[in-house]
Amino acid sequence: MNPVFKTFKSENPLVSKYVNYYYLDSKPNNIETEFECFPHYNTTISLYKENISAGKGEVIFQKNAKPLQIFTPIREDILKVKQVGSVHRIVIVFKPLGIQQFYKNLDFNDFIRNYPFFSNIELLNLFITTDTKVLTQLLDNYLLERHTTFKIDRLEKSLFLIYTNTGTLPIQKLAAETDTSRRHLNRLFKTHFGVSVKKFNEIVLFRKTLEKKLFENTELSFTNLAYDFNYADQSHLNKAFKNFTANSPKNFLKKGTLLGNEDTFWHLKK
Fold first, then answer.
1. Is the four-CA dihedral 125, 131, 136, 141 of positive or negative sign?
2. In this prediction, what percent of the chain has a pLDDT beyond 70?
3. Is the pTM of this model over 0.85?
4. Which DSSP string do the residues of 181-230 spell out, in sequence order?
5. How far, in Å, CA of 8 to CA of 108, rounded?
6. Residue 105: which residues within 8 A CB-CB, separation 6 or more?
């Protein structure tokens, strides 16, 4: 069987408020795959059919192993992933504060492995099909069954302002707009996102810059890209990309592969 990588969207209005997209990653004949993925403000739950975790970023196929469930938090560093042996995984990509709408009393600031996000029966139903329409319906239904509203007004307003200003709004203005102190706002971000307001802003700016180059105008020069996103100059843009990717923007884009129809942009090693 040939490898499959497909991205697909929730069809439920409530779920789609909190889930950016889903994807299916199937490599039945995989021997070893390595790739790097880069800082993002989204978080994920990865569901592996028959794999064990060998440490951060490494999963190994083991026939008849119990399904592996991994939560990946907001990251400010490069995540290196190694998949050894056959791969069949389904991934839910949550928006910020998205996973909190479906799961409670967990620390989402670090990796969570082997927590039963889904039951054995639910996983069995998910793993017996590669039809994304069926998977969409199943995932939407399973999440809806778990939904209980989680709401922190200051965080939600902060997210709106950060996205509206593409990650360029200084923390003092953000604190004033949300009627809170800088210290308390940072505490909220650290508690619920695992990063400071400043770092979250930087990640949003990096991802929005990347999205424009990938999806809106592939021919846009890096000088104009820097100008469009209020970087001081191209040198400032280069520095931001190197901080998050260890590459200049040109090399980063040259090495990367866009998978599916969303913003899954990885450096494939093998």
1. negative
2. 100
3. yes
4. -HHHHHHHHHHHHSS-HHHHHHHHHHHHHHHIIIII-TT--HHHHHHHTT
5. 24
6. none
